[in-house]
Design a protein that fits this description.
This protein has one domain: Nucleotidyltransferase, domain 5 (2-Layer Sandwich). Helix content is 37%, strand content 15%. It contains six helices and five strands. The chain has a five-stranded mixed beta sheet with strand order 3-2-1-4-5, with helices on both faces. α2 packs across α3. The longest helix has 24 residues.
C-alpha cells in the first residue's frame, strides 16, 4: 500500500526520472502533487506496472493531480554534464513548472541537489513507497516512451518503439551494424572509437 504523504498537513511533490540508464534519448523527470485522498488500485512504481496500465494511469494522474509537470534534459547535455547531474536538473526543471509551489519534495533515489529553499527527502525505491513518487514515475516513463516513439520514426533501425533506448541485445546489435546516431549518448562509450558516427 502506497503512502499518501511523508508528513501530514503539507503540500508534497513527488519527483522521479525515467531513462537514466538508456543508451539514447533524453532523460525525463516528473513532479506531481496529489490530493491527500488520491487512490488508484493500479498505481505503483512504473517498473512494476505494465505499459497498458501505465497508459491508463497517465490521464487519471494528469486530471486528478493538484499540479504536475514533466521536463527533460537532452542527450547532448547528458554528455556535457553527466547523467546524474542531468537527472537532477530534469527534476529541478519539472518542479519549476509546477503550477502550485510544493512545501516539501519527495525524491526517488539517494542523490539530489537542493531546489531553491524547499526542503527535500530522498527515498531509495521511493516510487514503491509513496503515491506521489509513483505517480511521477508513471508520468516520466510514459512521456519519455512517447518521445522515443517519435524518435523511432526518424531512426527505425534501432527499435526504439520497443526498447525505448535501453541497451537491449537488439539495440546493441543495431549499434554494431549502423553505428551511433545523433540521439545516442556519446559519453556512454557505446561503440569502439574507430566506428563512424552519423
Amino acid at each position: 500500500m502506497l503512502l499518501s504523504c511523508y508528513k501530514d498537513n503539507q503540500q508534497e511533490a513527488g519527483c522521479d526520472e525515467a531513462g537514466r540508464g538508456c543508451y539514447a534519448g533524453p532523460v525525463f523527470a516528473a513532479a506531481v502533487i496529489l490530493p491527500a485522498d488520491f487512490y488508484h488500485p493500479l498505481l505503483n512504481d512504473s517498473k512494476q506496472v505494465s505499459e497498458k496500465n501505465r497508459e491508463r494511469l497517465r490521464p487519471v494522474i494528469e486530471q486528478e493531480a493538484l499540479a504536475w509537470a514533466v521536463a527533460s534534459v537532452s542527450e547532448k547535455e547528458i554528455d556535457e554534464i553527466n547523467i546524474l547531474k542531468a537527472s537532477i536538473k530534469a527534476m529541478h526543471l519539472a518542479i519549476a513548472l509546477l503550477k502550485k509551489k510544493p512545501q516539501y519534495l519527495l525524491i526517488d533515489g539517494n542523490r539530489f541537489y537542493p531546489y531553491k529553499k524547499i526542503p527535500h527527502q530522498c527515498f531509495v525505491k521511493g516510487d514503491g513507497r509513496f503515491a506521489s513518487i509513483a505517480a511521477a514515475s508513471i508520468l516520466a516513463k510514459t512521456h519519455r516512451d512517447e518521445h522515443m516513439a517519435r524518435l523511432h520514426a526518424e531512426f527505425p533501425q534501432y527499435g526504439w518503439n520497443s526498447n525505448k533506448g535501453y541497451g537491449t541485445a537488439a539495440h546493441r546489435k543495431a549499434i554494431e551494424q549502423y553505428g551511433l546516431c545523433v540521439y545516442h549518448r556519446k559519453s556512454f562509450n557505446l561503440i569502439p572509437a574507430q566506428q563512424e558516427l552519423f
